[in-house]
Predict the 3D structure of the following.
Amino acid sequence: MKRLLEYPLPQGNPGEEINALAASDPRQAGLVAIRLFCTPTNGIDFTVKEDKFLLNSDMKRYSVRDFEIQTYRWHGSGKKVLLAHGWDDNAARWRPVISLLKSEGFDVMAVDGPAHGRSSSEITNGILFAESLGVVSKDYLPDIAIGHSFGGLSSCYCFAKEDSHQIEKLILLAAPSRLSTSFEHFYQSQNLNQAARDAVASIFTEVFGFEISYFTTAYFVKQIPAKGLIIQDEQDPIVPLEESRIVNQSWPGSELLITQNLGHSLQAPSIFRKILSFCKD
């Protein structure tokens, strides 16, 4: 994946540049597009209040490949909970959840994903985030994992692996089922033509060793012997409700909670209480 960094991010209008490049050099167009896809545009900075909250924790860094992952831990005598944020976000998004879990005695650890928050790396993707969660979890040994959006998809890939630490419960918040859905969102946002899309699909398989269609939460949850809760808002503008329905149908015994008018972030007291209740149950 290091070679992706050899390709500079497009300047000006990225979609137009990639479309033009696809006509003359499809392979390079695919590499540039995936480099762009793997590069967050936000999630680095913290507000003063967020920073103060995170700094009041037991901070530890983990080495993963050629980058480092920042974690924040609030010690407790109860079950251990690992939190994974979504794209263009960081560990600070979990402040209300952390405060609630702490008040009930849970031991909580939040992670800044690769290229987010205080973690290093210029790029990230589900594979790198899952690998990071794997390194952290083998040391932290969580009982419960909670992932929002991209962090949920990455958590599923992490804990579905045969050599992964086994968790008791997994909560997914607005997590896409199919990586292809994320790519479709990317294609539309950049207005990529069919030639560029074909180039991306081809190069993705070359770089990662499998097709985009393989990376699905619905498949991964079948490999995770954990009690599951899926929370999804019907008006989510980023991840369609159908994605969570697919995961729910593929995950025996899982619970699907459908909310109204909470959007993609699902930042609401009712959600925080549901998370706490599921963790305590």
Summary: The beta strands are 58-64, 67-74, 80-84, 107-112, 144-148, 169-173, 227-233, 255-259. The first strand starts at residue 58 and ends at 64.
